[in-house]
């Protein structure tokens, strides 16, 4: 097991506009949804006052990164216009930067124009659910801005992805599809790439658990891995509860992800996730 762990060497830092984030201890990314229709009602923020209150709480709880998103990507979500996404995301980022200038902000978008505007407003990371497949200008934008890029695996769009969850070998295909995009990014000179296998995106519940069980196979790409399972249907439907009662299950799958090599956990509940990591670290001494 030890030989397997040392076979592939991932990057140990991420450069966020000159601020180096160490991955020696897994990081927590707090979710800030400036959308009216996110799948988890408890995450919806309706105005800048709520955004700043939630930001303050997450930073107090120990969030390393704040992920601001203005486009709901839940299965079957309504497609909104680019300007509407900009109007949601940019003011939120500007407000956070003004109140919390040291915060590391990620923008959750698949649109290059939104990513560009968010970086100009103060964001330091681009988190793209489409892995560059829904906007051909995205990779050039990342390369020009030289910011860390979270490359997620998805097929189709949030509106069509459920019909595309068909695989011969799930993890092999996910790795192959991610690798193809990684190669494009590297050719453009992008230095900081983080992989997200895309739990819940073009994957059934069975796929999600297989992916979790085989998460360490992503190490072959020698890049940091983000896991985003917080309060998702793979958790709450498996437990027969709803999203509001899915915290315990989320902690459970996140601990498994940590044991399988996840470097970043994207979550709604920062304090509980920091505690999970604290306990996980006790096993790695």
Kindly describe this structure.
The structure is a single chain. With 285 residues, the chain is of the alpha/beta class. The chain contains 10 helices and 10 strands. The strands form 2 sheets. It has an 8-stranded parallel beta sheet with strand order 8-7-6-5-4-3-10-9. Strands 1-2 form a two-stranded antiparallel sheet. The longest helix has 18 residues. The chain is globular. The protein starts with a helix and ends with a helix. The model has no long low-confidence stretch (mean pLDDT 92).
What is the 3D form?
globular
Proportion of residues in extended strands? 5-15%
Query: What is the string of SSEs from the N terminus onward?
Result: HEEEHEHEHEHEHEHEHHEH
Q: What's the tally of helices?
A: 10
Kindly state the number of beta strands.
10
User: How is the biggest beta sheet arranged?
Assistant: 8 strands, parallel
Q: Considering DSSP H and I runs of 4 or more, what fraction of the residues is helical? A: 40-55%
Over all CA atoms, what is the radius of gyration? 17 Å
Order of strands, widest sheet: 8-7-6-5-4-3-10-9
Notable traits:
single chain; 285 residues; alpha/beta; eight-stranded parallel β-sheet; two-stranded antiparallel sheet; 10 helices; 10 strands; 41% helix; 15% strand; globular
Characterize this entry briefly:
The protein is of the alpha/beta class and 285 residues long.
Please render the helix and strand layout as text:
Blueprint: H1 2-7, E1 13-16, E2 19-22, E3 27-33, H2 48-61, E4 65-69, H3 82-99, E5 105-108, H4 112-121, E6 125-128, H5 138-145, E7 149-152, H6 170-187, E8 193-196, H7 205-213, E9 226-227, H8 233-239, H9 247-259, E10 264-267, H10 270-282
Parallel strand pairs: 3-4, 3-10, 4-5, 5-6, 6-7, 7-8, 9-10
Antiparallel strand pairs: 1-2
Helix pairs in contact: 2-3, 3-4, 4-5, 9-10
